[in-house]
């Protein structure tokens, strides 16, 4: 009664299948090359049909005759249109997957398929979901990554709907992420009254001393504002400028290398980037910046602004430099486009192209937008005014900035004004407010907004940077930074993210040491630990932060304690930087206590003198590590029988990416970290992550496991790859390939992983698509498959 014809390169339905006629209830035809399924109507008793990952362009009309169908898989084809009059006949159909196709429109009678409970329409190009209104039993609906600008209100009134996923559409991000309830709240607010707003987050990026702060402040004032060299940006500075109906939120990023690792947190999609380039200097790495931006936010608009024109001494130097940079940028973009095209072509040439439809979509989505370089002299009024006008013209172009205008409920603005009033009234001296207090205050003024609605508004205000509220961090969710500049200045205060840390540590006075019961010897150890192991004791962090807070005039002890933390409780600030992966918590290993009382069941066990375990933890700053010695010592030699998976990144591994990868290791209790390697133990298994970077070559991260129990090792590798994949989602311009290298010494061949994304997707029903017992590489070396692939 069941037939499995999957993965057989079929182009038509075989007669051996069709002959079975009414006897069949379930057929699996996934991973073939079917463009039509003529004859399928013979199988009129079918209850489940899987046609996913084929080459269907048209939805087969004959499916209409399969009136007993309960489950239908049509995902990962190239279907463009579904004709009318199919779904009304499928009276029993409960489950339909038609995600990852090319649908632009749904048949208007889809809502007559009244048994539907599960419907997946993600990854298409749908603009309208009206045909879904009236599906009374629908419980789960997936419409992620389409082109929806609006959702029919009646959809939410369907009482059965319990899951609705709409990420990746032109709807406010936080609303989509929140799911059904939030969508309901949002639309009910929108129904009350709406307005359209133009907000543009503008980020100033570029090398240190390039003139970012000068540009930012001068554009804000409309005239040159000199910035003293001593007044370098630390962390990020934010300000707001209203110009001709457009609200610019300027984010001025610090250019020093120490801060790059915090950038990824604040660089958000749909932004305008002003990339400052010092034309009088020869150290500019424009390519580095553009690459970073492209990898993280491929759809942002980048304007290159060349500064210091007045300091280009030799005549013609400026033009030469400008042309040179522009040429290089053009070449870089061209290379990138070509490499994307090549990747696409490679995929298209593969035998079973349907397997790669998800990847193809990803590649097509990537595009870049870099505008010509504008040379200016930041000390000249007319240049600043000219740039201001130029930006004004640019942003008024809807093609360049399609995302700028959004329709939002009117109450969003009202709540924002209330918060501004609150801050300017000076009612709250602290810039930080307890979440419940803030909510109470706001609800007093806006009684029509319930908790849920207010939360959505606060989330929106957080996204655009008006307030900062990290509701996803348990330790911080009760706290709202109603003045984000304060948070940034905390980062600035954050004694620990700074370029001159060693000298700051050296300047800690005896009195300051005493406040934490520390001695001079401790101070020396902190300096040594930081220099040699990139680790800083929590005690030192507390001293530095307290000092900075006091220096900036904050004397509220309760608040200082909350931010700084105590021996028992981590301060807010540390929680924050750890959450942002700027540093990792480390435990200083306490030596085993030989006096410790042995544990035996049923006998009361008492801890030995707690003093032995009272060594305080610290923070590790991966960016400060300079070698891999410790990791190497622990790992020993590579072994030919190690499990070895290579995850390639195209076009390259982003700057600072490996520091985030390290985080994966730190989730296991025993781990060692080096400059570009990290190692962890999970039970008896050891797994090494190693970054391979060459300027011109392929860049990849190697995951290597010492071969103990194979199945268990693959399980651990799967966890690592899942975390890696989740991390990569933050770099929308990044593309991954996975290989297992041939295990023969000296052989450069490899085995390509195909279905690894499905393998990682725990909800995916498909298994890993390798069935042979042994695999042979192109050079003829044979190995057992389970050493190369996680065969289930
Ligand atoms: N003569 C001249 N000086 C400029 C120009 N642009 C910036 N400067 C000066 O260059 C120095 C560095 O400028 P900043 O704006 O602080 O540079 P930044 O990129 O913000 O630097 P970081 O904060 O370290 O990242 C300051 O002293 C500016 O006054 C320019 O076009 N001409």
UniProtKB/TrEMBL annotation:
Xref: InterPro entries: Leu-rich_rpt, Leu-rich_rpt_4, Leu-rich_rpt_typical-subtyp, LRR_dom_sf, LRR_domain-containing, P-loop_NTPase, ROC, WH-like_DNA-bd_sf
Cellular component, GO, one term: cytoplasm
Gene3D superfamilies in the cross-refs: P-loop containing nucleotide triphosphate hydrolases, Ribonuclease Inhibitor, ROC domain from the Parkinson's disease-associated leucine-rich repeat kinase 2, Winged helix-like DNA-binding domain superfamily/Winged helix DNA-binding domain
Statement: the UniProt record of this protein carries the keyword Repeat: yes
The entry's keywords: Leucine-rich repeat, Nucleotide-binding, Repeat
A Gene Ontology molecular function term of the record: nucleotide binding
GO biological process, one term: regulation of signal transduction
Highest rank taxon of the organism: Eukaryota
A Pfam family per the record: LRR_4
Residues spanning the membrane: none
Domain Roc: 193-398
Protein name (database record): Si:ch211-210p4.6
Annotated source species: Astyanax mexicanus (Blind cave fish)
Organism classification: Eukaryota, Metazoa, Chordata, Craniata, Vertebrata
